[in-house]
Amino acid sequence: MSGLALDVTMTVNGETVVERVEPRQTLVDFLRDNLGLTGSHVGCEHGVCGACTVRVDGEIVRGCLMLAVQCEDAKVETIEGLSDSGEVADLQLAFAERNALQCGFCTPGMITAAQELLAKGGVPSRDEIREHISGNYCRCTGYHAIVDAVEAVAQEREKARGGAGK
Amino acid sequence: MKPAPFAYKKARSLDEAIALLGEHKDARLLAGGQSLIATLNMRLSAPTLLIDINGIGGLDRIEEKNGAIEIGALVRHAQAERSDMIAKRVPLIARAMPHIGHAAIRNRGTLGGSIAFADPAAELPACLMALDGEVEASGPRGKRTIKSQDFFTGLFETALGPQEMLTAIRIPLATADTRVGFAELARRHGDYAIVGLAASARSDGKGLKDLRLSFFGAGDTPSRARKAEIVLESGDVDGAVAQLDLDPHDDVQATAAVKKHLAGVLLRRVAKQLMEPRA
Q1: Interface ipTM
Q2: Are residues B26 and B100 in the same domain?
Q3: Per CATH, which fold does A86-160 belong to?
């Protein structure tokens, strides 16, 4: 490790992590290589494909466009955390039931992005769903099944909240 | 690809950031990083130091000051998108916002960063130009104001000096007679535009005055089409399209001829928006 390395402390999926990192290491590489959290995927590495989508301080970000050193004191959540807590269990089930994934490479990013939209509450229109996941490439499904799955979960959650849905 | 090695320093104050810029000739400022880190990853840029300005207090405000809206350098796109003040007083920016990147990019990217980066295909530099806005630059000798028409000097080049930092942008408040228009064509929603148009004008109920047509993706900097502005002010949309004074060049997205044609298509759409009675 070069003399440029810095210590960084952050919370990842609820656990405090202290690591020495090179400034040039991106957040997604840090999560995968240092912490073994390989659910966040590395695709284009320049912010286009969305496979590296993770949550930092409650908002989705590109894991390839943020440096690990920038996450000092930040709260980072990956698909492993969202999955273990059960927060996206219904989305995962809906994706499986509707064939909203084939190879699965985009799925962690897709579900993390969709969850941000659904967490706002209400039932978004199909156009709003498409707009929100427009930064996440899927090369298998053609997106229809993904939009179906997200829409179905939005309606189920609305029903569970006691709303009528749209 | 992975970035070349660089050092990282988190500036705690504006003075510290400016001092660091003075000490390190090839340092870069890191705000939202949504363009900068992509260029580092592709090794299009290899600075020796990144100065992270995200910890500097007071730069994340949207405020009304002296007849203008002042947007601090660290205001993120998502914050501007949610702002009632921007929706009411700077409607052109509100209209452009959904076209900028994608949700995850808008959570991090900043308005100031987009303007300082001066990508010729980006929405905000063109909006700033259409709105006759200005940039506040801070350097070792204090603050100065740069008008938008003097700010964008070339391809990814601005009037900022080597030791200056953009600290805010200021945009005159919209009034009852303000009309704005915005349209762009991109291969995928949220991607950089093939060509786009941001426009503002005043309407006296009969026609348009003080029209500013600011195209992006059509040159090295945001480009005003001054001849077309005059023709469109007279109400002649066909004439404005026919006399559109724009000189785009070929890029990876489209040829100059295609861009010129699309610019005419956008001009018709935006003209319609400008001439609609305001709700």
Answers
A1: 0.94
A2: no
A3: DNA polymerase; domain 1 (1.10.150)
How many inter-chain contacts (A to B, CB under 8 Å) are there?
Answer: 92
pTM for this prediction: 0.94
DSSP string covering B81-127: HH-HHHHHH-HHHHHHGGGSS-HHHHHH-BHHHHHHHT-TT-HHHHH
Distance, CA of B129 to CA of B146 (rounded, Å):
12
pLDDT in tens, chain B (279 residues): 899 999 999 999 999 999 999 999 999 999 999 999 999 999 999 999 999 999 999 999 999 999 999 999 999 999 999 999 999 999 999 999 999 999 999 999 999 999 999 999 999 999 999 999 999 999 999 999 999 999 999 999 999 999 999 999 999 999 999 999 999 999 888 888 999 999 999 998 888 999 999 999 999 999 999 999 999 999 999 999 999 999 999 998 999 999 999 999 999 999 999 998 765
For B228, the enclosing helix (H) or strand (E) is helix B226-233
Does any CB of chain B come closer than 8 Å to the CB of residue A53? yes
The domain limits of chain A are 6-82, 86-160
The residue segments making up the domain with residue B25 are 7-52
Contacts of residue A45 in chain B, CB cutoff 8 Å? Answer: 1-2, 41-42
Cβ separation A66–B33 shorter than 8 A = yes
| Residue A49 touches partner B, C-beta closer than 8 Å | no
Whether residue A73 lies within 8 A of chain B, CB to CB, comes out as: no
Answer whether residue B250 is part of any domain: yes
